Amino acid sequence: MITLMIRRSHNMVALALAATLALLLCAGGMAAADAPAVRLDDRSRIVSIGGDVTEILYALGVSRHVVAVDSTSLYPAQALKEKMNVGYMRALSTEGVLSTNPTLLLVSERAGPAEVVKTLKSSSVPYVEVPEVHSADGITAKIRFIARLLGVAERGEQIAGNVEAEFRTLTEEIARIRRPVRALFVLSVQNGRVLVGGRGTSADAILGLAGAENVADEVTGFRPLSDEAILGLAPQVIVGIRGTSAGGHDLSQVFSLKGVGATPAGKARRLVTMDGLYLLGFGPRTPAAARELMRALNPELASDAPQ
Fold it and tell me: Do 45 and 100 meet the contact criterion of CB atoms below 8 Å apart?
């Protein structure tokens, strides 16, 4: 069993990975020296839980070893079509996961419920917990971690290198923004109140990567806000997830709410929505998603931005 904790510091990320990648601890108190290496062969059966984890596995070219995924594994589209579905990652069942006869559980640290995760960690199947860090360094560290774990480090370096290059290009474009757009991320509307993404969320991180100012930075986590609070934040644009599936919500009526409608964003009817996994997944496509969001928020940059 491995639990990997990644910090935002690039150096700490490197140290944590160096220490963790040397081990693959099975349940039952196996000593580090006895931990087996992961060797992919025709008998390998990986259960991938987490849309970002599945996306990375497909990018690494090891999807043939994946036998099951969770319902958030929406990219690439064939994942849910060709693999068994063990259900929503936060509502797993022990029986549902283990019934796939896995040889390795590669699981996002966001998986749940806690009692099921605890049981899976104590099973005879190696359980590897993949970190969730909402940063550029966190994404590339996650890619390298999974690649080295599965013995495809060279391919992982190629993908991580491409992601790093895309982030550098994005940084150059963001430097051209004269004044950051004041944005509010709305996850959903519940009982007439908007659920917004505050500090420490994937929403906050993607707004930052796109060069925007999160007006809800004094809020921690995803929290509902009153009309008065929204009005006081005065966002220039509302950002959200497109659609009603996979965590997405229909925000077409968000401006009918009194507090939102009276903001600069409401008066201009300015709403930007994107696919949920693409926008908040923090996988290999994140630089492209952040760039697309940045250009949607700053359309004046799109016409002459470097391609």
Answer: yes
Q: Decide if pLDDT at 221 tops 80.
A: yes
Q: Is residue 214 a contact partner of residue 207, using CB atoms and an 8 Å limit?
A: yes
Q: Are strands 193-197 and 271-274 parallel, antiparallel or unpaired?
A: unpaired
CB environment 275-287: b (16+ within 10 A), e (fewer): bbbbbbbbbbbbb
Q: Categorise residue 303: left if φ over 0, alpha if ψ from -120 to 50, beta otherwise.
A: alpha
pLDDT tens string 122-145:
999 999 999 999 999 999 999 999
CA-to-CA distance for 280 and 249, rounded, in angstroms? 14
**Using CA atoms, how far apart are residues 80 and 278, in angstroms rounded to an integer?**
16
Helices (H), the chain: 10-20, 51-59, 78-82, 94-98, 114-121, 136-149, 153-174, 202-209, 227-233, 258-261, 264-268, 276-280, 286-297, 299-302
pTM confidence score: 0.85
